[in-house]
Specification:
By secondary structure, the protein is mainly α. It is 58% helix and 7% strand.
Length: 262
């Protein structure tokens, strides 16, 4: 049985949550001026181009994830720090890949808030890896967690394509290994990380756990706007894994506390 890691003081979380909300609202840098009402459109236009130069590397993240799962099943005692390190590196890659790109409408764009966030998460998880503050295992998984697995698969698959009519479903099985969104975008990569953290709870650095889940919830809520645009509604569906897993991860400590006291 692993020892549970010490928990930070409760007052720290509201301070950090407020800080991350402010970070998420940092103004974007664009080559061409934009009005505040166009902020969401700028981000959407940016996300439509950022993964294009890196599509050839998409398979790497899919294969590494599957290898990670296999190794956790085989040697869980040695995989906690490796998983945390992988998360840290992946978030730093997101800071380089997902936050900068050249769009037709707005010119060169930098998603400032996203860049700061991904760097912070990357460094936090690298520290967790260095301190070996994550213990992961597939043994004795509560059955209710398995209901989250289809959501993880949906994010890993990212079954969509873009056309002149917007975003539409594309359930081509090859996307399970070639989708450029998994591993190269925050919203499709974080659900897998959150699922692994949920399975690991409470044997995880609780501060890193909470700020990852909270930021997942922030960006999932931002992307609820896709539901109001018929051309992007399917993208709204594909953000449900991030929304549900982030919310569940945040309430899990309370669920766990009630189970301990009952």
């Amino acid at each position: 049985m692993f020892n549970q890691l010490p928990k930070p003081r409760k007052w720290l979380y509201p301070v950090l949550y407020l800080a991350f909300i402010i970070i998420s609202m940092l103004p974007l840098y664009t080559g061409k001026p934009y009005s505040p009402q166009e902020t969401q459109d700028v981000i959407i236009k940016l996300l439509m181009v950022v993964t294009t130069p890196f599509k050839a590397y998409a398979q790497i993240f899919h294969v590494l994830t599957l290898l990670m799962v296999a190794l956790i099943a085989w040697r869980p005692a040695k995989m906690g720090c490796i998983l945390a390190g992988y998360m840290g590196v992946n978030y730093l890659i997101l800071a380089l890949v997902q936050t900068m790109g050249t769009t037709t409408k707005y010119g060169f764009v930098i998603h400032t808030g996203g860049m700061v966030l991904y760097v912070v998460l990357g460094l936090v998880w690298l520290i967790v890896a260095f301190r070996n503050e994550l213990q992961v295992s597939f043994r004795s998984i509560p059955w209710q967690y398995l209901f989250l697995l289809p959501l993880v698969l949906l994010a890993f698959w990212a079954p969509y394509t873009t056309s002149g009519n917007g975003v539409r479903p594309d359930f081509n099985p090859i996307l399970l290994l070639t989708s450029p969104d998994y591993g190269l975008t925050f919203c499709f990569t974080t659900p897998f990380f959150l699922f692994m953290l949920i399975l690991s709870y409470p044997y995880v650095n609780i501060l890193a756990y909470r700020i990852t889940a909270f930021n997942g919830l922030i960006y999932a809520v931002f992307n609820l706007s896709h539901w109001f645009n018929p051309e992007l509604r399917w993208m709204g569906v594909l953000h449900l894994p991030l929304l549900i897993l982030s919310f569940y991860a945040l309430i899990l400590p309370q669920i766990h506390k009630k189970q301990e006291t009952s």
